[in-house]
Model the fold of this input.
Amino acid sequence: MNEKFFKPANEEVTPGEWFTGEVEGDVTPNSYPILFVHGINTSSKTWLLDNNMDDKANEHGFETAFIELYPDEDMWKNGLLLAEKLKEIYDYFQEKIVIVAHSKGGVDIQAALVHFGATPYVLRVITLSTPHNGSELADLAFSKWASWLSEGLNIKSNAVSSLQTGYMKAFRQLTDEHKDAKEVPFYTFGGTEWGAMNSELFWGGLYLSRFGQSDGAVTVRSSRLLYGNEVMVGDWSHKTIKEGTTVFSYIKDLVMEEVKETASAYTESLLQESETSVLHRGGSYLGKGVERFPVDERVKELSIDWISNRNDTALTLKSPHHTIYKSFITTKDATGFFPNAYHHSILISDPPEGEWSLHFENSGNENYLLTILFKQDISNELVSLWKGEVVSAAFSSKKTYSKKITIISSLPSGEQKIIEAAEIPSQLNEGIHNITIDISGTTKDGNKFERTQVKSIYVDGNGDMF
Done:
């Protein structure tokens, strides 16, 4: 395993397989080998194809290794695998290893260290936009309206499920309170760039903007570890944060024997000039179809995103004034949460209020998730209905809305239950419960509105709710 090994792009990889890179000159004194760990729905090729990360490490005289994980499994299966292989890699190099992990790879590594006894083999861990606190995109993937798309693409994996925010809160408590949690220091990086509308991460960034700054797949807040050392939050996307050209200059000093303590001067701005709320729809059709939705007087910008298993959908958006919009931009999903899906997106500024309609047509069967994002003045924000209350300048004092709750429960037995309720039950069985709240009502000015909220809750074997 001492020769660099590139597999053809179309060749399958084997979880647990690992290989080393090359060092053309002498190994830099007082440096440690780097093991690169990939994220969700990808492989070691993410470091080697269209990425000069290994070349940058080679230039600096660092030894490297790469490993294949299960791309679609949770942190427990990958953590156990990593713990076994870290011992092998440690024996090969005869010294501790520095881990560089992208995205979910950082969660997998922490599971290996804390829960599977791999701390003796690792010196420190560097995480690049790891969702340490889960992702709202994982919540969305398992929600009511995304179910058609998720099933059509076969993407309801253990990997995505484990990153739901409710489950990750339980993982955080279980991990952070463990005696080995701080044995190996963590150094974290986060990103704030998700590109223009034709970017493959634009939709992810726009969707996550409701929860703070992000790199198009993971929020800055989720990339942070409470007891970790935040090295930098930069203008990286979820893709560029793992590229040698952009990030290796910040990593190289963390591979040496001595590392100066880092203190982040970055503070995420909480000031916002506008708020974004969302409406979801979804389904499956053959031939033609239409989705209708209201736009109320508060909306300043409208974003339509049709996520589908097809890239050839004919989409036509019609305003209440019969204006026709067809200039949708199509990109392939790069968030990792909807692999092999296509985004068809359009932005409308100052949309007129009233009923809009999206008409769609395809020659074959199509599964879709329609996401409509409404940007509105913060003073007119539709306040969260999670606890069943509305407090907003846009509404009269009387109750002007109704809600429909759908709970999709994934139980330890593997069984899935779907129920509809008027309120969220005070007690839930053990498992992950993905909750969709569909809200409809009338604003103070008498215009119809519809919104959707998605949350996840995890209940452990003791009945504790996260």
Q: What stands out?
A: The longest helix spans residues 75-93.
